[in-house]
Queue: 4 jobs
Job 1
Amino acid sequence: KYSTTREKKYSKRGCGHIRTMDEQSIPIDIHYNKLLDWLIDRRHCDQRWHQHLRQIRERIKHSLKDLPEGVAKLDDIKTKEIVDLTYFHCQNVMKYLLTIESTDTNIFGQYSSQRLKDWKDIISSYEKKNIYLAEGAQVLTRHVNYDIASLKRQVAQCQQQHREFSRKAKDCQDHAATHKQRFNEQCTELCIEGKDVDIELSHLVDDLPSIFEEVISLVSSISPSIQYYKVFRQSINNRSAPDDNILPLLSYLCCHGNTTVHEWKYGEPPKEMKELRPNEYSITSENGDTIDWGDIEREGEIDFGEGEIDFDVGLDEVDLSLITIEGGGEEANRTTNIVMPRKSSFPTILEDFESRNEILNDIMELLEFLKQREVELTSEGSGVLQVSTHLAETLQVHSGDDLVKMIDGVKKVMEKLTDKRTQHLLLILDSESYLHRLSFQLSRQNQLSQYYSRQIDEYIHKAEEAGNQQHILELQLVEIVKTTKELQKQVAAEISKRYKNRPVNIIGELNQL
């Protein structure tokens, strides 16, 4: 009545026809989140629509089992969850069944085919009280607010996992290369192949005699430097004969070679020499003499006295704090094939730790002297000339170039005695624990390299799985967005029919998909 009065009012002004046309062209904008409330408020749908929808979906579930097999269109519908099937899917099923089923009807207008009859009843139930509109509004809201948002989060998570696993694979590759390089460097430093570390390390000390021979050869080559230093000290101290206390051990090594420490100290070789097995040690006094235990074999039995030995000692009488357990960890539990090298009961000068250090001290003393002399001869100053006038004539024949050659020779001896491989070999000879520790370190580097190599394949596989999962989720996302867009158009078209085909726009984030 109000609209009729208003049209009459505008018709009196001569613009009634324009007003009617304007109302038909005004679009109806509905936010997708408010669409269900909008339909219920305008009484297009009943408030108890979900109760009827539950019954309809039960019928759909049973009717899907009766559909023919091997049809692509129907198989796609069968694979969907029951909550994702809508009124418009049922219409598509009905259209396809009309092409393959008999369309004969009885006198009441019902289909004779049970399939057509079931799906016709389902569609009629949907259309009753516009339940399909309420269902469409609910599905739109669920897709936009939950399903699509969840798929986007899963895609982003897969992308992050792919990046993370790819980064870890790259890190493992770097770690594997680093440990492999360290292993190869240490093997090169020790001059071993690295195929069987334990055995190769055990045989390393076999190279010590040749190294010692090379050291002796180098020491013999610096004999003029040693003599030069002694003459210099003799001239400075105004002595007629060289001092034997100047570079004593280096001079001895130059003259007599790498003899035993016993021969160096006492002037004669030991009477009996034997090789000690691993963990077989002799007890020596501070000056290096072996303790003489005397004649152990005696006639008769040992008199232990009267009475019995009381072995019943309580734990309270034992100080447990004095008991220590050595070893432990991976190094102690590791099974090795190490064979300890045998040591001589009378080590040579270069094998003995103290005498070897004394030789190094002599070499350092000689080297620093030669460096200072080289500076004095190559620099200008009256102080140097005044000192030179007190030197013997034999010292004047050496020039700065000669001293440079002497310095190079002494440095070669120093480098040979202090290079890393020689130090490793000497420590192996002196310490069983060092040999085990060195073997453990090398094996550990190789194990870490192999471990990280295996991790590379594992992380690459996980990255591929994340990439494949991402691809599947992206396809699902594209499909659900496509379905949501179609449902949006279908629901908008159904609402438009109820408003004389006025344009209906379902707005919101739905349009930004």
Note: Confidence is low (pLDDT under 50) at residues 1-18, 276-329, 381-390.
Job 2
Amino acid sequence: MASADELLAIEKAKVLMVGAGGIGCELLKTLVLTGFKDIHVIDLDTIEVSNLNRQFLFRQRHVGQSKAKVAQEAVLKFKPDVNIVAYHANVKNAEFNVDFFKQFHVVLNGLDNLDARRHVNRLCLAAGVPLIESGTTGYLGQVTVHVKGRTECYECQPKPAPKTYPVCTITSTPSKPVHCIVWAKELLFAKLFGDRSQMNDLILHSRDPTTLSEKDSNVFELQNGECCNSYVQRIFDGVFGHNIEVALKNEGSLKTRKKPSPLYLSDILPKEYSEDYRKSNGNFNHTSGHAISAMAVLGLKNPQETWSLRDNARVFCEAMQLFLKNRKKEIGVCIFDKDDQLAVEFVTAAANLRAFSFGIPMQSLFEVRGMAGNIVHAIATTNAIISGLIVLEAMKLLNNSLDSCRMTYCLEYPSRKMLLMPVEPFEPNPKCYVCSQTPLYLEVNTLKAKLRDVVEKIVKNKLSVNSPIIMHGSNLIFEMGEDLEEDMAVHYSANLDKALASFPMPIVDGSVLAIEDLQQEFSCSLHVKHRETFDEEREPYNMVLSGELPTMAPEEQALQNTLHTKNGREPSGVLQPVDAEEVSYTNDVIMVGVAKTGTKRKFENIIPEAELSRLAQSEDVFEAASSDGVTLIEEASMVGTKRKLESTATGNSCFVEKKSKQKISQ
């Protein structure tokens, strides 16, 4: 039972809650029922149908409305005496600056992506406001406490490098279902129905080599006088037939791989595409009354059933026709949405047709929706547990009881009869480039790389800098912001297309770039190292960023991949964009460390092997390096600690040894 002083601290506290989704709905309810009176909520998203099974503050009538505002209205109905301020906005907007954050006693994160988490972490560090971070994925969850100068910041802990797929793998040598799904979603769907002016690595080869010069601009367009059926067949045969034949002629890329098989629509659907049938029917399916679903037209009812080759071809053609006939105004601006049934049907069919051609297992619509939409199927109970833990830690911080704060991890199965594993917070990592300003190193070909590459791929994408200012010595070479004068904006924009070594003060080997973000009050230094060549498969950006980064080394990634293989599937909800280094994460679960100083325990007594495998698939994973049958696991959240996994003759017994544990400075 809370004391009078504790209750008073709760009532007077001003709380910022970032995110009003799965965790946010539970958290807002728990906060007001605990006695918090002044709560501000920021969320950019609007309510979708798929939210309704777990985000209980929302109803069917709220679909399309602001999550923050609807959550505010719903809670005020049963707690009208509470002050709730809702912002339907992006937390990265300029209005939410350091001064805005300084007005709060504590910030509570319920976000669903890594970039926004990093942004809030930096604002909290700059404002000196405690941050409570959280995340869930299925039955797993976590709550972590971050206090400037006393505990590690959110970015002190390594994060695994997001899985990326080189463009050449996606376009030429797919080997997994996810490769085909990325191809169907990011390349084919975007080219047919999205912005065709955007760069796209999908090439449709023509039968006639004399038309190669004009194919890139109009081959995906419906030609004058061309009927819908002919257009659909031309796209189908071009993508799944002619392109495969061209790939077969490229012996280099397929020399050691199983050769794909070209697919032509007339071979799969001979009756529908016979000349007589087309003349008599015009279109091989009647689309009236079924404007949103090809499955409904074709009588396919089970989304968890894997379609046959013939059914995939039928869905592909029907989906294209529905887009052309019923959603013609959207073509050119359409963006894939996991809640768009027709879009998911098209991507499923296209991915499966490509998978069949390359000898890769086909997937059901349910599985494709999960991977293409980055879905981890959420559990409402996990969100409720995590929300309760967030409030408990907030109460401790408000009563100046940091020593009693814990990072808590929720497990799927009991370990030592516990589902919740508490861990003491750790000291700041002295090598963290965010809170300790450790220098970073960028290997790049300074003669070829442009400043645009550094800004987009490294500064914004890898370092999550929102509004970068870049200095080279005393020279300001790039700045962005709404308050820039027009002539300066033009000048900095022109700098983006300059090679690093071509600046008046050349950026070459040994140069140091100072990176700053005024909104985040964040700064770091980037030491440039010139390098001539890069491995296109492993280093698709032709740049390598190193130093104390929140990223996972290849050895750790290899272990993670091993665990994925052991489970016989890709991790839930993991689908990364083509040729991208950073993606939105659905949730955030970190490996647990609970061993006491100078003690040894069997690892399975802490976390069962099955749980270890599941946790290893989460966003934040322990580090590992293999050496002569002994795997050393370095805990991400500790400095100077090691764990040892040793194989025994009777099987794999795991022991944990904690060399040292740093306590929080008093």
Note: The first strand starts at residue 14 and ends at 18.
Job 3
Amino acid sequence: TEAMPLMITALVPAVLFPFAGVLDTKAVSAVYWNYISMLMLGTFLMAESVESCGLHRRIALAILSLLGRSEALLMLGSMLVSWKLSMFMSNTATTAMMLPIIGAIIESLRIIQRDIERKNAGSGEVALGDVKHNGAVADSLPAKEEGEEADSPQFTWFCKGLILSIPYGASIGGIATLTGTPPNLVFKAVYETTFPHGPGVDFGKWMAFCYPISLLLVLTGWHVLVLMYARFSYFDMVKQAFKAFVNLFSRQFDTTPTENQKKWKLVNQEIKRKYRALGPLRFPEIVLFCLVIIMVLLWLLRDPAFLKGWSIVHAEKMVEQHEGEDIHPYLKDAWIALVVGILLFNIPKENPLEGTWLWKAPPGKKLQRSEKLLTFETVMAKTPWDVLLLLGGGYAIAEGCEQSKLSKWLGESFAFLKGENNVLIALVICLLVACLTEVASNTASTTLLMPILAGMSETLNVNPLFLMISGTIAASLAFCLPSATGPNAMVFTFKEIRVIDMLRTGVFMNLLSVLIVVLGVSTWTLSILGITENVYQPDWKAP
């Protein structure tokens, strides 16, 4: 009901658990902040730096300029951009950045579409090839006034699909990486607390089994959106590909562009104009791009399955200095994120070599003290502290459920599934979580369900990772209602979108996505984690 802000609600366990005798105040307070919180903070710092320098906008326009050649390809491009950016940025920030870009493209399309209609109707003197765009178009396009000609039904329908591709791509992209969305980190925290002796799930392993699932989801989502909102473009694209294939063998090459191809050539020119307006790559963009690549590579190579990771090499050196200790990695994913985060406060926005004998300064430019890539004021203003506190509340609930045996009791209520096929169990879990996350935030849903799924694994004699990963991924499959996620709500700033549009599309998206998640978790996920038998492992729990 959100009678209180979620951030304040997250503090309730710290008050209730000591009063009910579940945990004392010291114990419940200690679990509110751990290394998962540090990992989340480090990724927030990087995302804020990327946003402040505009690198995300450059990446978005670059991809759209490559794929903005038809309705179907533009929809694919917008979905891929949202999908890729949300792997390393918050889903809400990705959507907030993408919607103005898509809005400008829609307005450009609207102008070109009306010129085409005037030309076809013979009511205008402006030919399609003569349509010009000044430098301000798509940045300050006029709104459609009363009495102005309405959009065609086909164009309006396409706009619905294009707008919906943004929140859907952002939600799916968060699944692909461990730091992509808070539910993934809630899973990691609850799993490692409940099963401290189980196999670790780090950034590289998560990406190894979730990236293919996420890729299948985004391709499936694109097909759903295109077939529902731009099937004419999809079938035209297939027809053009078939025609090109036939012409290749018949040696007859028809290069005459169609009216639709002319229109999309103008749209592509407008996207490229916006990209050129950004100017050449600037120093902070180059530095941040390199830091993102380095951070991801360090995450992937920390402890990969195919070679000895650098964190293991470091652990071996530590064991040599502390004889008798077992080898365990001292440096985890959070350490990498914090090192990069601290560097952002020390690297200047302006090239420090500019004006020296190594790098000539532009004529007339005065050297002055430069701002850093990230400032404390930016962090205090933009960091979602409420999310970090909500995660802490989730850790407290998980610890309370474990200590009070509530998770085991709730898990036993699903005993009727014992002995059933594992695929059926995963299907039931995914459907239940996907329905719950439509009416509750995905972080809150995961926080509530992870301890319960951990207890269910013992009751059903199923590997806890099988159930918990299924539930975690399903928590991001919120496609039906605007209240489900921030990105879903944000698209209703466009007059073209109605709740029935999102509900109609979301039902198909949810059903197909659940099937893909069940397929992925039931096949390659446990193999990648090195688990051969899908049975409960009592030795994973703390003694």
Note: The chain has a mean pLDDT of 79.
Job 4
Amino acid sequence: MEASNSDSLQADLLADERADSHSRDTSETNSNPGSSCSRVICYPYNAPRNFVGQFCKNFGWRFCFMLFCAYAGVKGALYTFIGSAQLPYYEKYMKISGQQYQRYRTIASTPWGTKALIGSVSDAFPLFGYHKSSYILISALLGTACFSVLAFLPIGEGSGDLAAAFFFLANFEAATVDLLCEGRYAQLMSERPEASSDIVTWVWSTYHVGKLFASSVTGPVAEYVSPRAVFLFCIPLAFQIVFPTALGYLGEERLPPAERTMKLHLITQQRGVFMLALAMAAGSLGLAFVLMFCDDLVQLEFAVGSSVVLCIMSYLYLPRQLASCNLYMFLASVMYLQLASCNLYMFLASGMYLQPASCNLYMFLASVMYLQVDGAVDYFYTADEQCLPDGPHFDFTYYLTYSNLVLTAAGALGVMLFHACFSGWYFRQVFWVTTVLRVVASVFDIAIMRRWNRHIGISDSVMYMCGSTIIYEVAYMLDFMPAVILTSKLCPKNMESTVYALLAGFQNFGQNVAKCIGLYMIDFFEIKTQEPCNYDNMWKLIAVSHCMLPLLTIPLTFILIPRARLTDSLHEDPDVAAANTKPSDEVDYEGLPDEEAKGFRASSS
């Protein structure tokens, strides 16, 4: 890391210029009509090769490799392993209930709600002369140690809290690497805006490569070897990011000794944003604490109370419409009626049309009103014949591998549908369609639980694949992309990265609140995931959590979402709006985490 990054970058660019000259010579040689057929045949090979060559030309092969390690290795593969492996680990190895499984998953996802604080701390407190690289190395070593413990040391059935703590630290690595690499390539995108789309394409492409690998491995290994054996794949994935980071491939210059002090002025200059990030991190960590040590009622009270506090603070420290949209997304995952009423009252009491704080409110509500009941759903689909004689009885290979592979393809279909059909729509209309599609996907779940599909001759596996996998994932991507466009159009200038981290934290926290309320709902409907099992009211739980409550977000769009098309500028100043209007396909979709979320859900922790 002591070597000069500028010298290595110049060497990379010189080598890339020579390769580019060679490729031009080759293309001139093959420009005759007779070679057109071979070009078509070779396109699947040449197109990726040419893209990677152009990317390396713009940013250097070292940075290209760094992003591959970060997004294919860590955020793609490792993050998918963390999300998928917990089900077989807790259900088959530790033999805990579905409620405990959901509780531990929520604790594990907590670091994704602290991303804004991680970013603020890394900006203000450089370690060993680096704002980003040192934090990545520390998190990678922590993650490697945690996976080593999970893989090699037996953790007893009564030590679920300890396992959740290790998953927490593993997610800390994924969240830290994602955030700090995102901050670095955001800097490069501002320096070379003409090539910014290449970075986004490379990040998403490598992410899906890693996700496909992890999805292909998790199910068969957990089913036929052992749930703990999955973590043997995680150890090298967690550690590999150390090498490119230590070699300086991130391209971060080491600060001179005089500048290695704490930069408290950065915190004071953005005191409001830092206070919001600190409150969000405190809420996330506090929720993890009460999930670990307190009963269900205390968990519910803390989740609702901390949500109200964060929503109020978002109105104090974020532009108004941005805050309201984020709150809507939050409620769309959790929905607790008093919470919705409180935030709606705050909105109306402001006495004005809420510009950028409204988006934060919308996204917050959208996350909250879609209650997360994974502990019941996952156990229902994977329950054995002794627990649920007439159940689907999916094995982990189908449930974690085949469905995830189809889910990835469905996500790509959602992206294509969005660009082909929805890119010129109004924001409100897109959110209406995606909400209805998610409800339709849940109807497929209800059909399986009520055994309606058997009456019409459709198997459980086909019904599940069509509903929860294909329709839901298409709806998720159609919902995700306009949300990112809306956020990117409303972000304050020169605060884009910080605000994106805050919004991602809000939505992750919203999903954790949704999981917390979901735990209460599982008990309310008397779902029992261990013998003697009881899934009689399972369809009612899905009907309330995934159908009725999400539909309540549709009226909120008239209040919290601006009446504008995806291609419109949303700045309050008409002159600024006219100068900054741009097509929706130029927006950076990498602003918000995915998965995470879902990732959040899938992704999140």
Note: Residues 333 and 370 are 3 Å apart (CA to CA).
